[in-house]
Specification:
The protein has three helices and two strands, in the order βααβα. With 86 residues, the chain is α+β, with helices and mostly antiparallel strands. The chain has a two-stranded parallel sheet. The model has no long low-confidence stretch (mean pLDDT 89).
Length: 86
């Protein structure tokens, strides 16, 4: 099993059309795919991390915005990863 598992959700209340919700989820998955290596290198080999991202914005984002938000989330998770195996 991989050291980090991620889930993604976009509420129907925020983004009404299914096509748009799927687009946001694809953007979130792509941003995660491009940046997950940062957490993988920080985690101890015997630990696993399970994270779930919920989109809360009122409008459709672009990839650059999602990547910036994902980087911020990963930065916030980093202290927990380094403290776990210190």
């Amino acid at each position: 099993m991989p050291p980090t598992l991620a889930g993604f959700s976009v509420p129907k209340k925020k983004i009404r059309k299914s096509v748009h919700r799927q687009r946001v989820k694809r953007l979130m998955r792509e941003a995660w795919r491009l940046q997950k290596h940062v957490l993988a290198t920080a985690a101890a080999p015997h630990l696993q991390l399970h994270v779930f991202f919920i989109f809360t914005g009122p409008e459709l984002p672009d990839l650059k915005t999602v990547q910036a938000a994902m980087a911020k989330c990963i930065d916030r998770l980093m202290p927990y990863m380094t403290d776990m195996h210190a």
